Every structure is written in C-alpha cells, then in structure tokens.
Amino acid sequence: MQSIPIKNVGDARLIDAFQRTYYYLRLSITDQCNFRCNYCLPNGYQPEANQPHFLTLSEITRVAQAFANMGTEKIRLTGGEPTLRKDFLAIAEQITQIEGIRQVALTTNGYRMAKDVKAWKDSGISSINVSVDSLDPKMFHQITGINKFDEVMRGIEQAFEVGYQKVKVNSVLMKQLNDSEFNRFLTWVKNRPIQMRFIELMQTGEMNSFFQRHHLSGKVLADKLLAEGWELQQNSLTDGPAKVFKHPDYMGEIGLIMPYEKNFCASCNRLRVSAKGKLHLCLFGEEGIELRDLLQSDEQQLLLQARIFTALQGKREHHYLHQGDSGIRNHLASIGG
Predict the structure, then answer these.
(1) Is the separation of the CB atoms in 67 and 13 below 8 Å?
(2) What is the pLDDT of residues 199-237, one digit of tens each?
(3) What are the residue boundaries of the Radical SAM core domain, all occurrences included (predicted)?
C-alpha cells in the first residue's frame, strides 16, 4: 500500500492504483430508515446493541472538508433515510459552504418531500433522488411495507413547484414484482423532466434467496430502449454509474444501473463514508477503514487526508458479485447504498 509523507498530503488527490479519480462521495448520515423495503430492510430498522452514535455535525463537516481538499466535487447525503435526522438541514447547509463542493445531492424515500422540499432547496440541496419502486399503489405498499405512495408522488410534483428542474427517481428492478411496469414508467416520464433510473437487484448477505427469485438483468431494458430509438448519453465526471438514455419524443430520461455488467467498475468515481465514520472503498467490500478518531479536531485534517489516500491505494480493481461474493454487506442501508 502506497503511503505519502504528511507534509505533502495537502497536494494528494483521490487517485487509486488503477488511475481512477474520485470526485464523488456518498456520505451516509444515519442507518435508520422508516420504510421496510423487501429488498433491503424487510423487517424494518433494527438498531444494533451498544452501537456507536452516528457522526455529529462537526464530524460530518470535517470529513466532507477532507474530501473536498482532495478533489471531491459532489457529495450525496444518504442513509437509511437521511431526512430523519433532526439536524439534516444544518448538515446540508454546512456542506454547501465548503469550498470546492459544487453539488450537494440527496437520496430519499420521499416520505417528507411534499412538506419539506422547499427547505431542502433553500439549504443548498442541488439535486434529489427519490425511490419509487412501483407506480401501482398496492405494489408500492407491498415492496416498501409503507402505504405512502400518494405522499411520495405529491412530493415529486412539489419539487418541480419549488424550482428543481429535474428529479431522479430510483426503482429497484425486480422480476415478478415491478418488471411488468416498464411501459407505465415510460409513459410517466414522457412529459415530465424525470430521470427514471432502474437499478438491478444486488445480492447481499441477508437476501440471497430473494435475489435468486427476483433478479433481472438490466440488459433486457437496455435492448428494448435501443430498439425503440433511445440513445445512450455520455456521462460527466461527477455522474454516478447509471447509463442514461434519451429519446427525442420524451422530456424524461431513462437510467440503468447494472452492477453485473462487464467493466462496471472501470469508471468508478465514488467513495463512501458510513454514518458511523468508516471509509468504504466499495459498496461490496470490506469491513471499512476507521476515520472517526481523526474527526475530533480541525488540526487532524492532514492526518485524515493521509489515511484516506493510503486506504484508497488498496481499493480493488472490481467487485466479485459475479462470483456470488457480496463481501460482508448484509443490507445496503448499513452503508448508504
């Protein structure tokens, strides 16, 4: 593992051993979630006994500052459900003030969106991803365990009312559950500026049998889109892993996130920090590298950046999902997806 002298760490950028550059941080601020999605937390949020508290506002600010110093331009606030934190707006406001951070994004289940989206925008949240796994209220309830479909849909419309030009909507693609709704989703985005993103169901430790029953390759949808005149777009530096398709007859877009596709990891540009202060180099990987002991004072910034850089040199070239190895990840809410 490559290390660097502390005196030179201020010049270090987030580049790994395979020359991939990391502009994008997914920062989880809570593991807690109030939905019970069948592909993630079917039994609801279960707090661990004697678990450490989630990162404080000052700790969050210090880790965001360190990443900004090393070239990060985009930070996405994730969870669990990040808006469950009482200091959520203060967190967003603090991060938007950090020099070098050009985008502060949010991933949410949308349950508070209709009520709070204006405050989110005022706090500096520049883009929103909201989960909608079905356009059928009964199926939405079946998948999420929560009867909040109408509230979430109102929240999306309210986002446009308060000035968001585009909303990204995430749907986990699941055979025998919502795969028959693809045309319905296409109709929904035809006259709305929504990027509808279908995410392949991913295998995790607690969900092996569910994965075997419901996994469907996104290639099925990609082939359909191309056959119907949709065109694949070029991603920018801070975009996530979605392959985005546009069609001249549609205001909306379609995104496909296909982690089982060959060379999926070649364009990786994002790192993750958990709500308890661990750096995760891959969504499907190791136990994580502890950062919290270096988040206690501003004077630790150079040491923090050195630890992040050194850890990054050990990032693997790719995940091993094709071999059925999802690492230690029991569910995605534990790391912010």
Answers:
(1) no
(2) 988 877 667 788 888 888 888 899 999 999 999 998 877
(3) 17-242
Domain positions in the chain: 24-40+50-323
CATH of 24-40+50-323, one of 3.40.1550.20, 3.20.20.70, 3.80.30.20, 3.40.50.970: 3.20.20.70
The answer to whether 268 is annotated as binding is yes
126 labeled binding residue:
no
Residue 39 annotated as binding? yes
> According to the annotation, is 26 in a ligand binding site?
yes
Is 168 flagged in the annotation as binding?
yes
Instruction: Find out whether 265 is annotated in a ligand binding site.
Output: yes
**33 labelled ligand-binding:** yes
Q: Is the pLDDT of residue 239 over 60?
A: yes
Residue 71 known to bind ligand = no
* Residue (of 91, 86, 126) closest to 106 by Cα position: 126
**Has 282 been labeled as part of a binding site?**
yes
For the ranges 18-22, 70-74, 232-236, 242-246, the maximum mean pLDDT occurs at: 70-74
Residue 40 assigned as binding residue: yes
The reply, when asked if residue 237 is annotated as ligand binding, is: no
Q: Are 215 and 198 in contact (CB under 8 A)?
A: no
The pTM is what?
Answer: 0.90
Residues in CB range of 250: below 8 A, 6 or more apart: 186, 189, 190
Which tens digit of pLDDT belongs to each residue from 114-156?
A: 999 999 999 999 999 999 999 999 999 999 999 999 999 999 9
285 annotated binding-site participant: no
